[in-house]
Amino acid sequence: MKKFAAVFLGRPMALVGLAVFAAIVATALAAPLLFARGPFTIVGMPLLPPGAPGLLAGSDVLGRDMLVGLAYGARISLLVGITSTLGAVGIGVLLGAVAGYYGGVTDDLLMRVTEFFQIIPSFVLLMVLVAFLQPSLNSTVIGIALISWPQVARVVRGEFLSLRGREFVQAARTLGMRDAAIIFTQILPNALPPIMVVSSMMVGSAILTESALSFLGLGDPNLLSWGSMIGGSRSAMWVAWWTTVLPGLSIMVTVLALNFIGDGLNDALNPRRGR
Amino acid sequence: MLVSMQGLTVALPSGADRSLAVDKVSFEIDANEIVCIVGESGSGKSVTAHAIMGLLPRGVTATGGSILFDGVDILRQPPEALRKMRGCDMAMIFQDPMAALNPVVTIGRQIAEQICAHRAISQGRALKQAAELLGRMGLPAALLKSFPHQLSGGQRQRVMIAMALSLSPRLLIADEPTTALDVTTQAQILKLLKEIQAERQMSVLLITHDFGVVADMADRVVVMRHGAVVESGTTNAVLGAPSHAYTQALIAAVPKGEAILPPLPSTDPLISVTNLSKRFRRGGFFSHAPTIAAVDGVSLTLSRGETLGIVGESGSGKSTLARCVIRLLDPEEGEILFDGADIAHMRSGALRPLRRRIQMVFQDPFSSLNPRQTIGDILIAGPRAYGEDIKDARARAAEILRMVGLTSESLRRFPHEFSGGQRQRIGLARALMLKPDVLIADEPVSALDVTVQAQVLRLLDDVRAQMNLAMLFITHDMRVAAQVCHRVMVMRHGRVVETGPTRDVFAVPTDAYTRQLLAAIPGRLTATQ
Predict the structure, then answer these.
(1) What pTM was computed for the model?
(2) What is residue B42's predicted lDDT score, i.e. its pLDDT?
(3) Residue A174 and residue B328: Cβ atoms within 8 Å?
């Protein structure tokens, strides 16, 4: 663990990523305290540029404070990114672990199911799912989790395939440990590093996917997210650049920070690199 | 004198477990002689050999001394000059020929490439030379078109030797060339090396950990420990009258290949296996490739307090048999009577209460312990699986650790903090935590240094006697089997070729294959003279 911290903290980009991500999380958490009036309140004339009195980031097409929108948008983006990743990791770890540990017919069946999800264009599937479930925060999270888990399942299955043949796993079987105990206490801790790396990257891509959904108007209509901010302002893109560029920059910075963290984790947790 | 090494000192990068890999090592290699460097892992013997080739790994540098090869100091040659010397003047073969050969290039092209890199000759003529070399190695010329994975381990090592000899070097360095091979193949490769050395009048530097190999091969011996030379001299002098205590200990630790334990009076067997068979299907689900019988109609009995050795080369089915008996694999046919119940086809639910009574010690000390758990957690995993109280389990773990020669302070530490021999002790402790009746030991000492090997074998035998265990001891090494087994069973191609009390099998082997195995034990000829 000391070694892990030393390697991770030794990467400047990982540190920058961690700091930026922490700042975004803090902003998201503090948004209701800082801006109690909420993101939908109209505060002035529409399309005021950044720097106008009382409007650090300008106002949008309806005259709402962009800064408040960005802070509240962070809440939705992070919430969707993290919960959908947790869901995807949950499904992926379970199916990947079962497929990799038991092998044979179980593995064949589960992998065919995984491939079914992988061969369908995932964004099209997501749009169909969300439209079918009615656009809401829940349907967005469920939809993104459902299109993201195959990637986790593949990684976990691969790790389990190689780990299940190791002698300490055979030893656990001869000790009479039950399969569930072997999977969760013996093999899974050894498979965690790649899972952590994949998940940190996945939070970023889930935020991107959520933005795309909201941009298309398939997000929760009662919530403001970065994607829906861009979607709602696209008609004003040429006259008021800040309405689209600022939420776009927020998405980019967040995803970039998560990728830097992922790279740092990869170096720190992968024994073949970094050490 | 071909090679003269004077005070070679090689530094390790900072953070290693010691500062010098090699500390003021001096020795000579004359023309037309075989010199052996003997030592345990970490003795610096490989680094010394690599230094002669100018092939020290990155970060490891020679900081002092000189290595004169025919008067030229290798340590002070530019890389290009060294490249020209490698292959032409000196060549090297390695422990793992699979890793040393390029898997996607045919054998013929690999040998020809080596010749063409140094000589201005056509590819066709180089291939012809390669064919001749293969012929000398006892390999058919048809192998030129084969890829490395199509060859057996012994064939690959012969190809490596052919490659090394392709430019007629004056010095051949062989770094543990037979460690990864079966004992009969090892004997053939060593014989080939010796013949070729005599034929070509070249010098050979042989790195080994096995004093048996030294006795068979060497003209002179250099014994190394912790990077320094402990003793050197002619083979007869060093083996006959070792002056240093470490050399004496090393020689004493080499099993003599003489049966020690007398057979036990016959009692009711605890385990009796009848006509057990296990087949593996090659290829995928739909392929019609034939199945291979890894274990083919094997029967055996094992009583309390008795050790039965199962001896065989790789692919003989000995490990598959052991894994069937402990039901890590499901046998197709036959029965395994354990204390009156047939466990061969028992379902896992019914088997579970019996599992704890049959335990196993594994071969690889590095993969047999979960790297993410403390020794304490590893040891109590078994008792916890049966719902025992954690406090009781912890107390017993400390007690059993002391029994295998470790302190209870080890409970809080992780596997990587222990040496190979200590890890094998922990693996044994884990097996003993469930107070088993049967212990299956699958090559428990084959990954260990010879002195550590002797200690672990003694421990296994002590524990067997103390706990009145029935022990199934799987090994490829007849010498090891002789030390701990009351009876031995020799396996080949999944079948039993001979079984009987260790003493009788060693004294009067009835099967030709057993005789071949016994004859292949390195150092046996010299020892009996």
Answers:
(1) 0.83
(2) 84
(3) yes
